[in-house]
Amino acid sequence: MRLPITPSEIAPRIATGAFILNSGLGKRRVDEETAAGLHGFAASTYPFLRNVPPATFAKVLSTAEISIGVALLTPFVPTAVAGAALTGFSAGLLGLYLRTPGMTKPGRSVAPTQEGLPISKDVWMLGIGIGLLTRGLIDRDGSTRTASVSLARSNRTATKRSARKSARAARRSGAGTAAGAAAAAARLREAVAA
Q1: Domain extents for the chain?
Q2: 125-181 pLDDT, tens per residue?
Q3: pLDDT at 66 over 90
Q4: According to the model, what pLDDT value does residue 157 have?
Q5: Integer Cα distance of 79 and 135 in angstroms
Q6: Is 102 left (phi over 0), alpha (psi -120 to 50) or beta?
Q7: Chain-centroid distance, C-alpha 114
Q8: In 3-state terms, the chain is what percent helix, strand and coil (to 5)?
Q9: Contacts by 179-183, CB closer than 8 A, 24 or more apart
Q10: Residue 25, CA distances (Å) to 58, 70, 107 in order
Q11: pTM of the predicted protein model
Q12: 119: Cα within 13 Å, side-chain hemisphere
């Protein structure tokens, strides 16, 4: 049975999965003050969260982080699914960064202030998430065909075509001598063997 991930996806999935899983486990049993701080920070940017009690918010956030971390670390979870989860989660974090006053420098800048620096670093998770999602969607059929394989195949096809064309031209031009025919046949055999 073939896994739904490729070797190039292993490192980003391990790095982000371990990071997010650790973060979620750390929030599993937070005290009321920490839960209120997390909730207040998120609710100031996303007003619909004001109706959720802080303890519930912390538990849901912890569970979401653990789930996303486990999905990234589990090789049986398809890359597109893990990438979509990571992209959604990190987009929410970057929304906090961009919408919370004092996180970015004044004006229309996206550059972080000292307060915004810890959250702005989560842009790497968004990049990895988009990369995994793209990889998962492009490679839906499970093929691992690379550009070099495609190039080699098209080169062989072009060489065969060229050899056949040369043989036809030699026959039409009256160069139907035994030497000309032997040379054309040799080019054709060479093209087929490549």
Answers
A1: 7-138, 147-193
A2: 999 999 999 988 886 554 545 544 555 666 677 667 766 776 676 666 655 556 666
A3: yes
A4: 72
A5: 7
A6: left
A7: 29
A8: 75, 0, 25
A9: none
A10: 11, 11, 37
A11: 0.68
A12: 24
